[in-house]
Write a structure and sequence with these properties.
Spore Coat Polysaccharide Biosynthesis Protein SpsA, Chain A, two-stranded antiparallel ribbon, glycosyltransferase, alpha/beta, globular
Amino acid sequence: MLSVLEHAGVIAFLPVLIWGGLLLVPWRPWSTREQLEADPQAVRTADLSDITVLIPARNEADTIGSTLSALQAQGNGLQVVVVDDQSNDATASIAAAFPNTRVVSGQPLPEGWAGKLWALEQGKSHVRTAMTLLLDADIQLQPGLLPALLAFKRREGRNFVSLMADLRRTSFWDRLLLPVFVYYFKLLYPFALSNSRNKFVAAAAGGCVLVDTDVLHRIGAFASLRGALIDDCTLARQVKQAGYRTWVGLSRSVVSLRPYGNLASIHDMVARSAYTQLGYSVWALLAVTAIFLVAYGGPFAFMNLPTMWPWALSAWAAMTVSYLPILRYYRMSPLWALLLPISAAFYLGMTWSSAIRYWRGVRSRWKGRIYSH
């Protein structure tokens, strides 16, 4: 029989196993090696006539102008389709003022559809080009990003490429929580595995996706995933399972214009899909809770014990090191890594909040729409 002290020693070793294992696994989910940035020099000669940009927009008057202005600076021949998803602001009129831009008036949301996917489904029939760029209405592309993305797609022979947007960091809460959002996304969907031929892991960042138009038609998108709330990863999975190649990476040249700024806004962003990510499983929620408590709380719980503090210190150091590449990539101070356990506590709380919403009958809530069970 193990003594109490021996049991404690086993528990103290678990955080070392978690964080050390994370650093040592060959697919390196903490790494930022998968990245693509703009090539401003390519703008003058870029031929983008093979691409139509498809933008779902619901009450995006504050951002749609900046999004479309940035597209005008990407190259020549680019076509844009904006689906005005029942907006009650000036979204449609602002979009209509831009050249090579067609505004489609969206129809009411049918039962069983997610709003964004319904807008994309309506816009899909207006695409006549070989490739489609799925772009959120609050995403601004830096000059030369789209030519670089197109060149990468052709060079690598991919049918589907997507880039994780750089989320605005204008407040303490943004800096505390938004880089961690990207960090956790990469842990859940390791980019190296997602970019391989492994069909069990597929990820995408839905704000910016360049995909072959015929692939969308062959897999039946967007009707085939009409109710998906995590639509980007669902779409990537369908593309991979159909035998096509996908790629996802980071980019500072894909800039989110959406302001968060406070804890409430970030909470709404996370809580709308966190429990969905767990498959609405109570057991998965409890498992995640246990892992967070051991991984983040363990190093500090055992730090003052004389025989266990080396394990605790090693786990804390590995935890901190795992977060540094993301901070470096987003040009933030490494000192933010010291607050990772606090960030984790907030994310665990937001995940529970998402589950409580679901148990109360709200599957998700976004853009003034409530999706029930």
